[in-house]
Amino acid sequence: KIVVLHDPTVDRTTDGAGPIVAMTYAEARRLDAGFRYGAPSFPFRSRGIRIPLLEEILDSFPDIGFTVELKSSSHPKFFEHLASIIRNLALHRTIVASEDDGSLKTMRRLLPEVPTNLSRSEVRRFFFMASINYRHKKRHAYNEDYKTYDLAPRG
Prior knowledge:
Elements: H1 25-30, H2 54-60, E1 66-69, H3 78-89, E2 94-97, H4 101-110, H5 120-131
Parallel strand pairs: 1-2
């Protein structure tokens, strides 16, 4: 299962603590995802708000486009499972984003029809090539394979 959570830990947004990757789906699902939202009154506490699955989000909003930002995953079948979810529920309304070259390379191989951002190293290469006005018969600074890109924030 793939859950949707921006942070690597549940500490900032839920009534739990610890890294999301160390939790089972059942443990993550029991957390109150509205617990720390809306200080000082916390109006979403105890309202049944849970950490959602990616499928639930994509299924609940069929007319909305999404940027799926990959943080990290150590699960061996993560990318294949993510590609399957996107292919089945949101193929033409998803952009895949990551700062990691390997993650983007894998997703581009699995879903060549889905646009991605440029990784940090690709942005550097892009600007370097543009700065020297690089032109070559088969290579140039802009690659048409990238349907969209953005600049990754500095770490």
